[in-house]
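Loading example: each entry is read as two labelled lines plus one structure line.
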Amino acid sequence: MNLWFTEVQTKNVMLSLATENLLHIEKTDYQELAVIEHKDLGRVLFLDSVIQTSTRDEFVYHEMISHVPMNTHPHPRRVLVVGGGDGGTVREIVKHPTVEKVVLAEIDERVVWAAREYLPEISAALGDPRVEIRIGDGNVLVRENENAFDLIIVDSTDPVGPGEVLFSRDFYGAVSRALKEDGLFVAQTESPFYNEDLIRRVQQDLSAIFPVTRLYLAAIPTYPGGLWSFSLGSKKHDPLDLDERDFRHCATRYYSPAVHLAAFALPPFVRQIIGV
Amino acid sequence: MNLWFTEVQTKNVMLSLATENLLHIEKTDYQELAVIEHKDLGRVLFLDSVIQTSTRDEFVYHEMISHVPMNTHPHPRRVLVVGGGDGGTVREIVKHPTVEKVVLAEIDERVVWAAREYLPEISAALGDPRVEIRIGDGNVLVRENENAFDLIIVDSTDPVGPGEVLFSRDFYGAVSRALKEDGLFVAQTESPFYNEDLIRRVQQDLSAIFPVTRLYLAAIPTYPGGLWSFSLGSKKHDPLDLDERDFRHCATRYYSPAVHLAAFALPPFVRQIIGV
């Protein structure tokens, strides 16, 4: 099959993937959804022609968005994931025995369907009895809750289209109200090479709301620029105030206690972006 | 100008860069050399259609291949750089006031010419009086020296074509002989996502020769997979046995004492590659 999927990363950079097999493509109510098979990357999920996840490297993103905040909280019981319909983040969260409930708020039910159909390794935990899938607007769900969650993770698409509202200061205020008094929040916040302004703004907005605001990094091969950032806001617990005995050991391939701490060692050019 | 440069990263992954301006292209005695201007990445140097460096992100690679070993050695005076004709590694080395002499062994004089002509920020230190440029085979030069250098850096292309011999165990033996009794060696060793076998083999070869063998990582946006590895072999000094007071502070944008240590915090999947 001589079919190439091209992600237009910027107007001047394109990443093209040879398609072994086009497993699925459809226009959902929210976006164009496609799943392809790729020789090096395994199965790859695209939304609006942007790579969301590949079975080859998804472990990096899903482990780092989950285990860093999960280990920062001493006993995370109730977790809300906004976005993340592929189930990869949920899969990592339920590895922690403290967890009693995970609510997954995904706006596009076709993403959940496609993950169940084509990405079984990623979506494996969506059937876990502790997991409740709510198809709907995560922004609305957050506003309906007060003092309800130990951890809220925004596992969203880029800040355009359906994901845009999830990067606003007003939304972060609602997140803070939906969290318990020692709760914390994490969101993926794009590349420090290509999205400096976004990272700066999110960090500023979070620090106006949360006593503890941090930025951490991970290397994700299939995302533009390779280096990816996560922004964390916390009412009480600091991800840097941890020692080895605080970590709950889960089976992971990228995350470890040493990687947790190393992820916060920001290069000077990243410190400069956020003014620390 | 509607001209795209495409790097074939694997048979199934292509990265394409829109060319604002094609500054230079030629077939040298060793390889095809091209320099383009790119809107996001600045000036980009290609050898045989593989991205070598861009003015936007070159600081990551050049700082990490240089300052990690330079700070590991307590008083690096004589340094040999094999490859690295663009001058970026040399530029970082001469930031250290301990340095008395840097020999740059570049096989292709056209690379040095192109860097001087088109990449002045990168090649800036090639005129430093401590720098001696030797156009020739680094493999031969290493074998002509004994007990001569505190640090040898292999800043090579991928392990195909002119760069291949620089990844052999026999070469590492010659490197060891060319080093002083407390000398050390660093080489770029590709991506842990795409080049597992190479990394494993180099680490095994180095550990047969050097008492201290380490692997460290950095995030380099324009290299395939984003996450890049460096292999270090040392006769005496360990890059992990450093505390804050050992670092010589230089003006850097990616490297810092915290980043130095964090670079050795290997994710479990990388530890598995090298069996540590």
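Chain A touches chain B at residues 4, 10-18, 38-41, 56-57, 59-60, 191, 193-194, 217, 219-221, 223-227, 252-256, 258-259, 261-263, 265-269 (CB under 8 Å).
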